[in-house]
């Protein structure tokens, strides 16, 4: 019986400085004309600092892969993976779902890891286009499958709550690699299973 290949995936570098973030949040709110004197707002800078630290700190996880002993060669797809990230242009959230699939090669991936990979790249200031490509490229590099497909559908509060205020609008991005890009039938199957008209 084969043992799974494991690799712990984590961010390196310094962690958040919550004290400095809280002071900066207080300065920002004060500069925007918001008084922090009331009981309900006094703790807001600290809550802001902790909230953004949580949004920007991905959890470590074990990347678990297994040998594809059965030679499974059809699409593996996880649909409706929740996505939450923060637009790097306005630091406002965007939320939606990701559909992530691959055509296995020699190894298959523990299914929960598809959601972990999405979370890993979403926990930082982002643009949706880059996030979509990062997930696909990372899977392609780490798993070496025959093909990878990633579709993300998200609503951006920088577009719905400010500026054009296009409430209810969503943005769809996709990245296809390998067979899912090159073969029309495989591409069509992927988009049909995600519910996206390719």
Automatic annotation (TrEMBL):
Residues 22-193 form the GTP cyclohydrolase I domain. It catalyses: GTP + H2O = 7,8-dihydroneopterin 3'-triphosphate + formate + H(+). Its EC number is 3.5.4.16. Keywords: GTP-binding, Hydrolase, Metal-binding, Nucleotide-binding, One-carbon metabolism, Zinc. Zn(2+) binds at residues 87, 90, 158. Pathway: Cofactor biosynthesis; 7,8-dihydroneopterin triphosphate biosynthesis; 7,8-dihydroneopterin triphosphate from GTP: step 1/1. It comes from the Bacteria. The keyword Chaperone does not apply. It is an enzyme of class 3 (hydrolase). HAMAP family: FolE. NCBIfam families: folE, PRK09347.1-2, PRK09347.1-3. PANTHER family: GTP CYCLOHYDROLASE 1 (PTHR11109:SF7), GTP CYCLOHYDROLASE I (PTHR11109). Homopolymer. Belongs to the GTP cyclohydrolase I family. This is GTP cyclohydrolase 1. It comes from Amycolatopsis oliviviridis.
């Amino acid at each position: 019986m084969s043992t799974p290949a494991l690799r712990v995936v984590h961010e390196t570098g310094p962690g958040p400085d919550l004290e400095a973030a809280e002071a900066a949040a207080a300065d920002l709110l004060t500069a925007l004309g918001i008084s922090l004197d009331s009981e309900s707002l006094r703790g807001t800078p600290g809550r802001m600092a902790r909230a953004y630290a949580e949004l920007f700190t991905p959890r470590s996880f074990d990347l678990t892969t297994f040998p594809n002993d059965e030679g499974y060669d059809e699409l593996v797809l996880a649909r409706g993976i929740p996505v939450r990230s923060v637009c790097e242009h306005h630091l406002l959230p965007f939320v939606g779902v990701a559909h992530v699939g691959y055509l296995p090669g020699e190894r298959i991936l523990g299914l929960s890891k598809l959601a972990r990979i999405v979370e890993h790249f979403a926990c930082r200031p982002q643009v949706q286009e880059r996030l979509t490509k990062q997930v696909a490229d990372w899977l392609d590099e780490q798993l070496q499958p025959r093909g990878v497909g990633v579709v993300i559908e998200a609503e951006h509060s920088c577009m719905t709550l400010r500026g054009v205020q296009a409430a209810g609008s969503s943005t769809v991005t996709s990245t296809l690699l390998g067979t899912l890009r090159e073969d029309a039938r495989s591409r069509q199957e992927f988009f049909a299973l995600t519910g996206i008209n390719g």
